[in-house]
Amino acid sequence: MDVMPLLLLVAGSAAVAGAARRTPVPAPLLLVAVGLVISYVPGVPDYTLDPEVVLPLLLPPLLYTSATDSSYLDLRAQLRPVALLSVGYVLFATFVVGWAVYLIVPGMPLTAALVLGAVVAPPDAVAATAVARRVGLPSRITTILQGESLLNDATAITAYKVALAAAVGEGATWIGGIGEFLLAAVGGVGVGLVLMAPIHWLRTHLKEPLLQNTLSLLIPFVAYGVAEQLHASGVLAVVVVALYLGHRAWEVDFATRLQEEAVWNMVAFVLESAVFALIGLQLPVVLRGLGAYEGADATWYAVALFLVVVVARFVWVYPATFLPRLSARIREREADPTWRGAMVTSWAGMRGVVSLAVAFSIPLTVHGGAPFPQRNLILFLTFTTVIGTLVVQGLTLPPLIRLLKFPGHDAQAETLAEANAQAQASRAAEQCLDDLLSDERNALPPPLADRLRMVLERRRNAVWERLGQVNPVTGETVDDTYRRLSREMISAEREVFVKLRDHRYIDDEMLRNLLRRLDLEEAAAYREAA
Fold first, then answer.
1. Span 298-327, pLDDT tens digits
2. Pick the residue with more confidence: 231 or 125?
3. Which residue stretches of 323-445 are H helix?
4. How far is residue 334's CA from residue 78's CA, in Å, rounded to a whole number?
5. 237 close to 60: Cβ distance less than 8 angstroms
6. Rounded to the nearest 5°, which phi and psi values hold at 331?
7. Residue 192 class from Cβ within 10 Å (0-12 exposed, 13-18 middle, 19+ buried)?
8. Measured between alpha carbons, how far is 159 from 103 in angstroms, rounded to an integer?
9. How far is CA 135 from each of CA 23, 142, 271, rounded to the nearest angstrom?
């Protein structure tokens, strides 16, 4: 097996994503653009998307890391709009896009057009969260978009299976389609509910952080695989398990949390970078299969489909946002939406790698051996829709948000809330310390007891100090100065340790232990001041 193309993909996409952080262009868009260009460089191997790799190997970890970073409580509070988008909109887009393609493309059977509709219906989880993080959307809109992107793949993949069964002549019916959808949805949630508690119990009872993080890496694949074996939705199973584990992450050992955050940040960075690069690299593969169609016709179909996809989302989002407000109960329970929020939600409909992977899984033939109707054109239209939404909507979303002038985060109010929370926690910790020291079994020399109180006091005051004045000489806030001085002191210690190792006063093992202790001190100083 030649691993060089894979290494080149990972290394190249990571380099481009790293470079994107120094530009105003979001990394997903730059990766797609570079992939398009690189795909025509002589000697670059074909990177054909294999749905047998993308869906079971790339989708679960991307969903898992996104879901663990999401808030279960926020998603529960926004469950109605999330469901309207992740289920209602996907089904609406499948039928609208399918019917439009059936009317636009001569000779396209309605069943094949519905297959294309299901393929391009779901906005992409990776694209939505990547752009949302970059542009700093209001928390409610971000929660809705993240919730939609976590759940809509399950709806789209099920709709695709039903439409595909009808297209290849397996005699699918509406009743059968509804039954399959319910099986996938209920089964996926059920698998997640069954797995989440035992997995969490195992995580909390493994005492070695390396073992706990090895389990963490396996969880999304286990949840996805078990659900798919039962013909349920692996997507929903992963999301349910991840939301539960993220909500209960505080019960895991601190060393595991620190290590797990670093591991999953790296995994998410590598996979997200590779996924967007893969999208751009599909262009030669798609164009080679398009030979039977004239360029002008194919371009017209692509533009028309892009417009239908964009308009259909507006047609769904605005009524779904404001019509439920006719209910007095909803008006009492939920904050009033704004037209600006609906505008951003409508425009944030970027498609991604899942659509391409599902499109490539369309079989070559139907029952009887006949070719699948216009399969190559469906691949081309899926590709152009993904590229069009990523480039057009992805590039214009940040300026659109700035133009709409959403209210920014109230940093003062957030700091006050954090300081009050820290004060309550510190009082509890101080009472706990007094109770412990009153027991003779916990007797400590006064200097050590004072040190515990000093650390607690420093942690309590650190948040309040953020509200202080900026130093007129350096332009630094108090926490900036604290962080800088702490790091410089630790750096001086680190240099001494290295010199002692170089002169053989201490060995490398002792150096690693000392440096790890300093690393933890530096991390603590950074967190206290951050």
1. 889 999 999 999 999 999 999 999 998 888
2. 231
3. 328-333, 339-347, 353-360, 375-388, 394-404, 411-437
4. 9
5. no
6. -60, -35
7. buried
8. 20
9. 13, 10, 21
Q: Encoding tokens for residue 305? A: 């489909």
How many angstroms separate the CA atoms of 375 and 362, rounded? Answer: 7
Helix (H) or strand (E) holding 168: none
Secondary-structure percent of the chain, ordered helix, strand, coil, rounded to 5: 80, 0, 20
* CA-based end-to-end distance of the chain: 46
Helices 90-104 and 110-120: angle between axes, nearest 10 degrees:
140
Could you give the C-alpha distances from 80 to 84, 319, 324, in angstroms and in order?
A: 6, 14, 10
d(C-alpha 352, C-alpha 279), whole Å: 8
List own/partner pairs for 96-105 with CB under 8 A and 24 or more apart.
96/308, 96/312, 96/315, 97/121, 97/305, 97/308, 97/309, 97/312, 98/163, 100/304, 100/305, 100/308, 101/301, 101/305, 101/308, 101/381, 104/301, 104/304, 104/305, 105/301, 105/374, 105/377
Tokens (6 digits) for 6: 């894979």
Helix (H) or strand (E) holding 282: none
Residue with token string 């409508």: 346
- The pLDDT tens digits of the residues spanning 428-440 come to 877 887 887 787 7
**What are the helix and strand counts (H, E) for the chain?**
25, 0
**In the block, which residue shows the tokens 């481009």?**
16
Predicted model pTM: 0.84
Neighbours of 150 (CB within 10 A): 26
| Structure token digits, residue 251 | 């019960």
Distance (Å, whole) CA 221 – CA 1: 23
Provide the 3-class DSSP secondary structure of residue 169: coil
Name the token pair of 328. 């007095």
Place of tokens 């006949």: 370
CB count within 10 Å of CB 23 equals 10
Length of the chain, in residues = 530
- Quick count: other Cβ atoms within 10 Å of Cβ 145? 23
pLDDT of residue 466: 60
Q: Which residues contact 232 (CB under 8 A, 6 or more apart)?
A: 183, 184, 186, 187, 188, 190, 191
Tens-digit pLDDT profile for residues 20-40: 888 877 788 888 889 888 988
CA–CA gap between residue 379 and residue 385 (Å, rounded): 10
In sequence order, what are the residues at sequence separation of 6 or more whose Cβ sits closer than 8 angstroms to the Cβ of residue 279?
31, 32, 35, 352, 353, 356, 386, 387, 390
